[in-house]
Write a structure and sequence with these properties.
18% helix, six-stranded mixed sheet, 5 helices, 29% strand, single chain, Metallo-beta-lactamase, Chain A, 209 residues, binds zinc ion
Amino acid sequence: MEIHRFVSDLLSSNMYLITEGKAALVIDPFRDTSPADGLQIERILLTHEHYDHISGVNAWKEKTGAPVLCSRPCGENIRSPRKNLSRIFEPFCELQTWIRLERLPDFDPNYSCEADKVFTDEMSFDWRGHRLRLSELPGHSEGSIGITLDEMYFFSGDSLLENSLTELRFPGGSRKQWEMVSLPKLETLPDGMKIFPGHFEPFQYKKTM
Ligand SMILES: [Zn+2]
């Protein structure tokens, strides 16, 4: 198995491909579908509903026919340009303090897409000899999740970034949900687990974060 990271043209969000031979899963696809060439994409997974993480869902769905899987609130919010924040992408970019843009990237203020399967709280599935566990982590957004792969790797979306606090101020964000639901789940992650975040480089989890 290999994990490949690609950096998008929208706020440098990370897209990941998990490959096993020619079979692959994609997490948070962006608009460039060329990384799918030569691969059989079997599922599209979304860490959360924000536009910079879902901008390629329609293009990847059309190209690969793979079904989209995410949490129930994510599945509801990606259908609305207001809730996936494409409608307010310009102020959203200004609020994302980790990146300074000289020029706004091209974006579609009416972007929406659809999930094929949603889950509540937690779901697991086996894929090509690997175990994936998806678990809701509300706080950064209503539909945020963490994706654990083989109990060794954790795709955190925007819920866990290296050296920066989790952003809870966007529409749909909730400090209460974050503290009550998500922090206790994140505290169960083992020290040293490899984290693949929604922005920046992968890093090792440390409990003091
Ligand atoms: Zn986000």
